[in-house]
Amino acid sequence: MSDLKQQILQTLLNGNGESISGDLLGKKLGVSRVAVWKHVKTLMESGHTITSSAKGYAMVDPDDSLLPYGFPKGIQERIRYYPTLGSTMDQARELAQRSTIPHMGVVVAEEQTSGRGRLNRQWISSRGGLWFTIVLFPKIPPTLSYIYNFAASLSLSETLGQLFNLDVSVKWPNDILAGHSKLCGLLSEMETRSDMICFLIIGIGINVNNFPKADEPGAVSIREILGRKVSRRDILTRFCDTFGDTVKQIDAPDFNPSAVMHRYRKHTSTIGKMVRIETFNRTDTGRALDIDDSGALLIETPEGMTQKVIYGDCFYKSPDDPQ
Amino acid sequence: MAEDVLSPLAGKIIAVNIEQGADVEEDEEILIIEAMKMETPIYAPCDGKVAEIKVKEGDEVEEDDLLAVIE
Fold first, then answer.
1. pTM for the model
2. Which of A186, A266, A270, A301 could form a disulfide with A174 if both were Cys (CB 3.0 to 4.6 A apart)?
3. B58 neighbourhood in chain A, CB within 8 Å
């Protein structure tokens, strides 16, 4: 993006939603009113939420804006913002492969046109939600990589609990639930070469100010729970801080996975529940006994055997489900 | 010369993109393993022909299991 467009966005963001006239913008930036209009028009066409009125130009909902300049120093340098993307995962993978994004870099988009969940399932990501991918360049072996996913989901649970006093929990391994409804989903991809992790990307989708029910009946947004809009920037900022602290612990030389898993177990609602585990060729049921330090879910089967689960979709069974 | 493709971690094979005898290029995605919502694509270590595929979709693998041989 041109410097001038960046300056326009930054000025409008600092305007706190107040209109700024084309004349004033032009004077500030040393260009004509017509030049300002042309640039604003291009910005609007590329998906930036700017309104234009007789009084001038204004940014819609500046507190909610995900533009890098709105984030505190230390985070804004790592934000790669796009009004629209095919998928933040695809973009993050490309940036990671070219090493043009730092450790803990964040790729964020207002909307994804081909967002995806696991196994290439479609993931609906309309405007108002928070859709982002975190890029990590870990120094640990691939077998330990799971710890970042658990760290991310527990950090999300802490973030939403602290910011909005929401009663949220983590469903094994990484979904965030509010009550029985899905508030956030997480998936990740790892690239390895001969026993080393090249990079790990973690995609996170949070239903914030959107209304997800029409597309996914079992989902809910923060706005629906609280009855008001909230700032996606506050959520992403707090999450980057909380997750960043945990990642620092993981990256330390004396790291022990049990520290993270101990914290994770405080945030999960899975232990003790009757669960159904579905993979594409089998379904297992049982009572969730524990989640061990390797991230595996231990279930007690109806035959009384303990079974270790490391993949599959986990569903909580309700009492009226068929056995 | 044959190159073994080993599993970097325990998980489930969710995609097999190669067939026995097929030509592959170095860095071509040949398999995908999933564990705990993390997908790990496995790439061909070199140019060559698929001499053996040891796994199919749905198989469970452990760390260091032999997945395929490229020669």
1. 0.91
2. A186
3. 279-281
